[in-house]
Amino acid sequence: MNITGILTSIILATAMAVPAMAQEATKKWDSSAAIGATVTKGNSDTLLFSTGIQGTRKWDKNVWQLGADGAYGENQSVKNTEVFHAFTQFNRLFSDMVFGYLRADGLHDSIADVEYRFTLSPGAGYYFIKNDRMTLSGEVGPGFISEKVGSTTKNYLSLRVAERFDYKINDRAKLWQSAEWLPQVDNLNNYIINAEIGVDTKITTNLSLRVTLNDTYDNEPAPGRKKNDLKLIAGVAYSF
Predict the structure, then answer these.
(1) What is the C-alpha to C-alpha distance for residues 173 and 89, in angstroms, rounded to an integer?
(2) What is the rounded end-to-end Cα distance, in angstroms, of the chain?
(3) Which helix (H) or strand (E) covers residue 21, if one does?
(4) Model's pTM, two decimal places?
(5) Judging by DSSP bridges, how do beta strands 46-59 and 228-239 pair with one another?
(6) d(CA 129, CA 109)
(7) How far apart are CA 4 and CA 11, in angstroms?
(8) Which of 70, 68, 66, 39 is nearest to 55 (CA)?
(9) What is the pLDDT of residues 142-187, one digit of tens each?
(10) Is residue 99 within 8 Å of residue 92, measured between CB atoms?
(11) Per-residue pLDDT tens digits for 29-69
């Protein structure tokens, strides 16, 4: 099975696992699934389809997050988007503000010529702000990246420096933002920056409108590819 098949399997398995685990945990999972699609016909012939699922469970001094997302698009029947991503992160709170974490990510992006990129990172984190409406946290730790970009396969040690901001605007709307920097330890010119900002507004108890802006900057991309990839995704999300 190629990497596209592997990551697709991860997404499908996660999609099936989260609701099942949510039932087993008797509502201890806070989960949502989102879908978005754009189709045009006539003077332009385009297709863009995106989907994602994520879940968070908190118990005792532990927080477990997992998720998967993917997007596929065509312009005049020529593929211009094909990206799959999956992640999981486990946090262990040592105090109200300090925690340790272990995170794993998998990515496939055929347009950026990233056949696969797997990232594993343990580390420590700190909540600079933590209350019922707002949290701001930072994370830092070592990492290991295995990737095939273009025709080049590399395995290397990295750092991971990250932050995340969550804000509950009111009972029906929330905003979030996150960013991470992943430089190669022995070659700081080789680094990746991943960033996201999003807003979610409820239209019913379980249904909401969601808009996210994702940015990936690869300072050493595949030959013939641009360094920066920006994606704006709008869709409908269902919480369960």
Answers:
(1) 24
(2) 32
(3) helix 3-24
(4) 0.83
(5) unpaired
(6) 34
(7) 11
(8) 66
(9) 999 999 999 999 999 999 999 999 999 999 999 999 999 999 999 9
(10) yes
(11) 889 999 988 777 776 677 889 999 999 999 989 999 999 99
Sequential DSSP letters for 179-213: EEEEEETTEEEEEEEEEEEEEEEESSSSEEEEEEE
Domain boundaries, the chain: 3-239
Fill in the DSSP letter of residue 165.
Answer: E
Provide the token pair at 108: 């496939």
Distance CA 215, CA 138 (A): 19
Q: Rounded CA gap, 5 and 191, in Å?
A: 26
The CATH architecture to which 3-239 belongs is: Beta Barrel (2.40)
Label the pairing between strands 187-202 and 173-184. Answer: antiparallel
The pLDDT of residue 199 is: 96
Q: Which residue has the tokens 């065509």?
A: 74
Sign of CA dihedral 142, 148, 149, 151: positive
Rounded-to-integer distance, Cα 159 and Cα 140, Å: 8
Match 């900057």 to its residue by tokens. 217
Distance, CA of 33 to CA of 206 (rounded, Å): 10
